[in-house]
């Protein structure tokens, strides 16, 4: 895509062995108006994509620690380089775990504090709307999207947490109930530049009217996650 034009942006979606949600992520990109491009974990070439989504699932069976093996995939070398150059990268759930393991985002994901897998419709507040993936939301907007994981507890030392808060890098915060014991109710964060964002809940499962979760106040359209994908397209046009 040529910067500043309305050409269709090409958004890569990386598949690792054990990835589950790559097809939903590709569908979300398409519904937002972008062109999804399948990327394979063993291929170190990003094929000229404009942005990358690391989707959810159980890459490498979550062996050792979720994301700990995926981080060494050839595709991740390319993603790390591209992210450092400013390319938008979104990690959803297992993708967020991979981003922390790859040190593109600080902190770690550990077992949910209650030690159970959790699957629910989760309310979040969007606290930072200046990132590549959230610029189409209103500051403080509450959105409802699915959450499903076992290793969803975000932990970091207090200095890192203070830094994230102070720099406005807590992008999403759980509302109503903290589903996994994450420090300071943090559901998602960004890097300092705002091009790399990771979160545990799944926006790609709430992009189509009639199929996403209801909102807090009763049935809604269920498309609260679509804004992630329209946001990145908007950020690429502005770039
Ligand atoms: N939905 C997912 O991506 C699952 C993430 C991760 N493997 C976990 O269970 O914690």
TrEMBL record:
Catalytic activity from the UniProt record = L-glutamine + H2O = L-glutamate + NH4(+); N(2)-formyl-N(1)-(5-phospho-beta-D-ribosyl)glycinamide + L-glutamine + ATP + H2O = 2-formamido-N(1)-(5-O-phospho-beta-D-ribosyl)acetamidine + L-glutamate + ADP + phosphate + H(+)
Which CDD domains does the record associate with it? Answer: GATase1_FGAR_AT (cd01740)
Give compartment(s).
Cytoplasm
Active site at which residues? 93, 202, 204
Under PROSITE patterns, the record lists: GATASE_TYPE_1
Looking up Pfam families in the UniProt record yields:
GATase_5 (PF13507)
For this protein, the Enzyme Commission number is 6.3.5.3, 3.5.1.2
**What keywords tag this UniProt record?**
ATP-binding, Cytoplasm, Glutamine amidotransferase, Hydrolase, Ligase, Nucleotide-binding, Purine biosynthesis
Q: What is its main location?
A: cytoplasm
> What role does this protein play?
Part of the phosphoribosylformylglycinamidine synthase complex involved in the purines biosynthetic pathway. Catalyzes the ATP-dependent conversion of formylglycinamide ribonucleotide (FGAR) and glutamine to yield formylglycinamidine ribonucleotide (FGAM) and glutamate. The FGAM synthase complex is composed of three subunits. PurQ produces an ammonia molecule by converting glutamine to glutamate. PurL transfers the ammonia molecule to FGAR to form FGAM in an ATP-dependent manner.
Q: How does the record describe its quaternary structure? A: Part of the FGAM synthase complex composed of 1 PurL, 1 PurQ and 2 PurS subunits.
Q: What is this protein called?
A: Phosphoribosylformylglycinamidine synthase subunit PurQ
Q: Which gene encodes it?
A: purQ
